[in-house]
Write a structure and sequence with these properties.
225 residues; 2 domains; five-stranded antiparallel β-sheet; 36% helix; alpha+beta; elongated
Length: 225
């Protein structure tokens, strides 16, 4: 059986450039560092995890992520916002069940003590348990925004909604969205996006931002459109 393949069905991943001159790439290499134009920075610190992350948006549609964990610098990550979904996935997990457990540890002994007076020392254990539950809820609670690769469910980076302040985070998120839209405004429609997106995801895979399996999954998603 013979299958006819037209020229339009052949995609060369290494020989493609976006029509807009500002977004043209040379072999999918990030622009030289000395040419970067810094737009805004956002630093987020998690004391409990001894982790500090600096997000730097530069040249309109690029994002540099620098993370220091336990006094050790992790490899830098550079994300081209052109290939990030416009709307992040918001996740709220405040560990309400831990707060409820803490409240019960306070309420139940208090009610029993009111009905059946006993030495106050008996309340020490429930009190410590309540504090432990609430402290755990504060440490493990999450309110984050997950930014996923275009046309996939793979998370490229995550921004905490609570630090350093909600106002600064909201401003940074707004400008990220503007950068994403600006980059995607110059992308070709339909299958014309495939070589561009796949080549950039391959770059992220080689840089360790995503795994090889995630890259293969994203590639299959693009080839199936």
């Amino acid at each position: 059986m013979t299958t006819a393949v037209s020229h339009d069905d052949v995609i060369e991943l290494d020989r493609w450039s976006v029509p807009d001159l500002e977004l043209e790439r040379d072999c999918w290499i990030v622009p030289p560092r000395d040419s970067w134009r810094i737009d805004r920075r956002l630093r987020q610190t998690r004391v409990s995890a001894k982790t500090s992350t600096l997000f730097t948006r530069f040249s309109s549609h690029y994002l540099l992520i620098q993370t220091n964990r336990r006094k050790k610098d992790l490899p830098e990550q550079v994300i081209d916002l052109t290939f990030v979904q416009e709307e992040p996935r918001e996740i709220r997990d405040y560990r309400f069940w831990l707060w409820l457990a803490g409240a019960l540890c306070l309420a139940v002994p208090a009610v029993l003590y009111a009905a059946f007076p006993a030495p106050l020392a008996w309340l020490v254990v429930p009190l410590f348990a309540a504090v432990a539950f609430m402290f755990s809820a504060i440490r493990s609670g999450r309110h984050v925004f997950e930014f996923r690769a275009l046309n996939s469910d793979v998370v490229l980076f995550t921004i905490d909604a609570r630090t350093p302040s909600r106002e600064r985070v909201d401003l940074f998120l707004t400008e990220l969205r503007e950068g994403i839209l600006r980059g995607q405004r110059h992308l070709p429609d339909g299958k014309g996006r495939v070589p561009l997106a796949v080549a950039d995801m391959r770059r992220l895979s080689e840089a360790g931002v995503i795994s090889r399996d995630q890259y293969e999954q994203i590639k299959q998603n693009w080839f199936s459109i």
